[in-house]
Amino acid sequence: MSQSILVEREQGLLSLRLNRADKMNALTREMYAALADALEAAEADREVRAVLIAGNAECFTAGNDIHDFLQHPPSGPDSPVFRFMRALMEFSKPVLAAVAGPAVGIGTTLLLHCDQVFVARGAKLKMPFVNLGLCPEFGSSFLVPRLLGHVRAASLLMRGDGFTGEHAVALGLANEALADGAAALERAREVGLGLQALPPAALALSKRLLKAPYMDELRRVVAEEGELFVQRLSSPEALEALSAFTQRRQPDFSRFA
């Protein structure tokens, strides 16, 4: 297991903690592989009853590590990022998240696949895919409009508007907003321990029934988004946006039709 992912177990609650604070927990190919491995193992482990995904008290994740992503872009369904997406989306047991500070890109979209989400009030969530010349991913183009309606979803996915933890609760994207990251983590842990003590088969069945009406469509959308996202990574717009990001300048899209 990568040292960038800390794995802890308390009774039947398995915690996966992003541990790259010097890089704001930006996700690398190695980290995606470690998360996918952990979720796949937890799915098969009868002693794991629930999973908690968290960062630290100051930061959930800044999203993809741009340098690593450009050096090792996903190339197909077996790429680590897509393995992680598939493992989380199909996970049969309860998944919780504790969010503090930045939750950018996949740091927000992965929350759409969690069953319980607890955020610090001042958490800063954002899905800036269009801003980077990319497109929505991880089912966000399906799930966000389903939750919020088209116009509010467009503000988040087309304009890339950021929002706070308190706003996430108001939008229905999180359960509770707590005072800070430590409180959010403790609340998620408390709820996770409660869930892991419940009848596991009944929990898994309830989760399956909750998701059943839209899962086939979600799988189709995630696959389509993934293909388009990979294509967009080499588009002139994305190359300009990502180059500007690494060069710490404003991107210039004026030459693009």
Automatic annotation (TrEMBL):
Position of the signal peptide: none
GO MF annotation terms: delta(3)-delta(2)-enoyl-CoA isomerase activity
SUPFAM superfamilies to which the protein is assigned, alphabetical: ClpP/crotonase
Pfam families to which the protein is assigned, alphabetical: ECH_1 (PF00378)
Keyword Transmembrane helix among record annotations: no
InterPro entries, A to Z: ClpP/crotonase-like_dom_sf, ECH/Chromodomain_protein, Enoyl-CoA_hydra/iso
Keyword presence, Iron-sulfur: no
UniProt superkingdom: Bacteria
CDD domains for this protein: crotonase-like
Keywords from the UniProt entry: Isomerase, Peroxisome
Compartment(s): Peroxisome
Gene3D superfamilies for the chain: 2-enoyl-CoA Hydratase, Chain A, domain 1
Chief location bin: other
Residue runs in coiled coils: none
Name of the protein: Putative enoyl-CoA hydratase/isomerase
Source organism of the structure: Pseudomonas knackmussii (strain DSM 6978 / CCUG 54928 / LMG 23759 / B13)
